[in-house]
Design a protein that fits this description.
By secondary structure, this protein is of the alpha/beta class. It contains 9 helices and 5 strands. It folds into 2 domains: 126 residues, Response regulator (Rossmann fold), CATH 3.40.50; 58 residues, Arc Repressor Mutant, subunit A (Orthogonal Bundle), CATH 1.10.10. Strands 2-1-3-4-5 form a 5-stranded parallel beta sheet, with helices on both faces. α6 packs across α8 and α7 packs across α8. The relative contact order is 0.10. The C terminus is likely disordered.
């Protein structure tokens, strides 16, 4: 894969028919979007700029790797683009299979301009929302990892719904110390309520002490 060159949304078109590729490209450019075209699924997987934003418009029946196989292969290549599948041989079974593997919609050739415009705009918006959510989650993970071990211990108690008195007793420190660390937790995480912390920490994959976590680093941060 190539390095991402631009953050502007791009419509990536995969179709082995030149006229079909050019038609979608012209429509995309008329919407003010960048467009890159590929004559095969293999070429797209090989040349897609890493983590480039936008959406993927792919034909289903193609020589070599077909569109369904391409959609199935996207996770293996860490490609999260919303997919618009297009086929001149659409049926319910195929549509269900394609949607089950992550396509946001399936259109039948020849596509009406209005439905393709709507599909592209919807996919671009979905991609932007998903990227914003991933960035927010990554930012919160970094904030969690900035907590000291003692602050994490207080966070565990907060997430378990324990009052300050119970947390202080378990950690063998004063309630004032717990209140101070609790304030630090709120400050470092940028949250206003315990419910907000629980929601964001759970979404970020945070696990309390004694439980494995695949998202949050277990190494202590600097300082207490």
């Amino acid at each position: 894969m190539e390095e991402m060159a631009s953050s502007k949304p791009t419509v990536f078109v995969v179709d082995d028919e030149p006229d079909a590729r050019d038609s979608v490209a012209a429509l995309s450019l008329s919407l003010g979007l960048d467009c890159q075209v590929y004559a095969s699924a293999e070429a797209f997987l090989r040349e897609y700029p890493r983590d480039a934003p936008g959406c993927l418009v792919t034909d289903i029946r193609m020589l070599g790797m077909n569109g369904l196989e391409l959609i199935r292969a996207l996770p293996e290549h860490n490609i999260t683009l919303p997919v618009i599948a297009i086929s001149g041989y659409a049926d319910t079974k195929l549509a269900v299979e394609i949607m089950r593997h992550g396509a946001v919609t399936m259109l039948e050739k020849p596509c009406r301009r209005e439905e393709l415009v709507e599909a592209i705009r919807g996919a671009i918006a979905q991609d932007a929302q998903q990227r914003a959510a991933r960035e927010e989650q990554a930012d919160f993970v970094a904030k969690l990892e900035s907590l000291s071990p003692s602050e994490r211990a207080v966070l565990d108690g907060m997430m378990a719904g324990k009052p300050n008195k119970a947390i202080a007793r378990e950690l063998d420190v004063s309630i004032r110390t717990i209140e101070s660390r609790r304030a630090q937790v709120f400050s470092k995480l940028g949250c206003q309520t315990v419910a907000e912390i629980v929601r964001k920490a759970t979404r970020a994959g945070y696990e309390m002490a004694g439980q494995p976590s695949s998202t949050i680093s277990s190494s202590p941060s600097k300082g207490e």
